[in-house]
Structure formats: structure tokens, C-alpha cells
Design brief:
With 183 residues, this protein is an alpha+beta fold. It is built from 4 helices and 13 strands. The protein folds into 2 domains: 78 residues, Outer Surface Protein A, domain 3 (Alpha-Beta Complex), CATH 3.90.930.12; 81 residues, Ribosomal protein L6 (Outer Surface Protein A, domain 3, Alpha-Beta Complex). The N and C termini lie far apart (58 Å). The relative contact order is 0.14.
Length: 183
């Protein structure tokens, strides 16, 4: 049984929820977001809360039960306050700029890497920290992962793009490894 799926999602004041047979739409002060409801899960609204239940107790439906409840919870939370992910640039000469709705990365390649923001996503740069924000938690995380993938941190000097606070284990180089094994 899903412990997450059993809890109802509270709807704060100022948020409108519309449930069709196949879609759920949430509209709040920060914006609106819609997602499809998978087959096998019932979503219903009672007063100021949303209740999610599986159609049957098959393994697939039980797995979707908690997932759908968390997605709806994130939709409601995102319509009230935006989600954000922070990434930091580490490396000499690594820079990031925002030009319109594009993020321009200078990360040691012969060319600049441009990443355009999909609808609902905003970029901001403060010194060497990139901030990705939006109301859709899933999309914010996906765009942050795409940015990190441009230049992931390498294990010898730690240069690259990493999440703020992410620990990268630094390996010993050939010189240090050879000195330790040869003595």
C-alpha cells in the first residue's frame, strides 16, 4: 500500500483545480500547469483537498498511485511558489550569461553553448551561480540536468558545472599514484 498516495493534497486559498477524466489543471498566483492523469488512477476533488485512489490493486496501479499524488502535490506547490535549482561553475574562465531567454555558457569549448529556456522556465546568473526557476518541478530539474550535462565536473581538478553544494570526489593524478605505489 502506498503511504504517500493515502495522504490528500491540500489546496491553498487562491489556487483553482480543474479535473477532467484525462487531465488535471492547477491555476495559481504564479501561473497554471496541466498534466495528464494516467489510466488506473482516480483523482477527485472534495472541498479544499484532492484525493487520489487506484482503480484496482494491481502492481502497476499501486505504483502509479503515490507517483500521481506527488505530481499533483508538486503542481499545487509550484503554482504558489516557484521551484529553483542552482548550479555552480568551477573552472578558470568559465562564465555564464543570460541573453533574452537563452543561457550562454563559456565552459572551455571553442564555441559558446546556448541553451534556450522552454516556456515557464527562467534563467538567472549571479557571479558563478546559475539559477533555473519555474513552476513545473519536473521541467526545472530536467533543464538543470541538461545544463550540467554540457560540462559535468571532471574527477581530477573538479572543473565543470555542478549542483550547488554537490561533492565531487577528486582522484589522485598519475604522479601521486605512481609515487605511492613505487616506494
Amino acid at each position: 500500500m502506498s503511504r504517500v498516495g493515502k495522504k490528500p493534497v491540500q489546496i491553498p486559498t487562491g489556487v483553482e483545480v480543474k479535473i477532467d477524466s484525462e487531465m488535471i489543471s492547477v491555476k495559481g498566483p504564479k501561473g497554471s500547469i496541466s498534466k495528464p492523469i494516467p489510466v488506473g488512477v482516480l483523482v477527485e476533488q472534495k472541498e479544499n483537498e484532492i484525493i487520489v485512489n487506484p482503480v484496482s490493486m494491481s502492481k502497476r496501479n499501486k505504483a502509479l498511485w503515490g507517483l500521481v499524488r506527488m505530481i499533483i502535490s508538486n503542481m499545487v506547490e509550484g503554482s504558489v511558489k516557484e521551484f529553483e535549482k542552482k548550479l555552480e561553475l568551477q573552472g578558470v574562465g568559465f562564465r555564464a550569461n543570460v541573453q533574452g531567454n537563452e543561457l550562454v555558457l563559456e565552459v572551455g569549448f571553442s564555441h559558446n553553448v546556448k541553451i534556450s529556456a522552454p516556456e515557464g522556465i527562467k534563467f538567472a546568473v549571479e557571479k558563478s551561480v546559475i539559477i533555473v526557476s519555474g513552476i513545473d518541478k519536473e521541467l526545472v530539474g530536467q533543464i538543470a540536468a541538461t545544463i550540467r550535462r554540457v560540462r559535468p565536473p571532471e574527477p581530477y581538478k573538479g572543473k565543470g558545472i555542478r549542483y550547488l553544494g554537490e561533492y565531487v570526489k577528486i582522484k589522485l593524478g598519475k604522479k601521486a599514484a605512481g609515487a605511492a605505489g613505487g616506494a
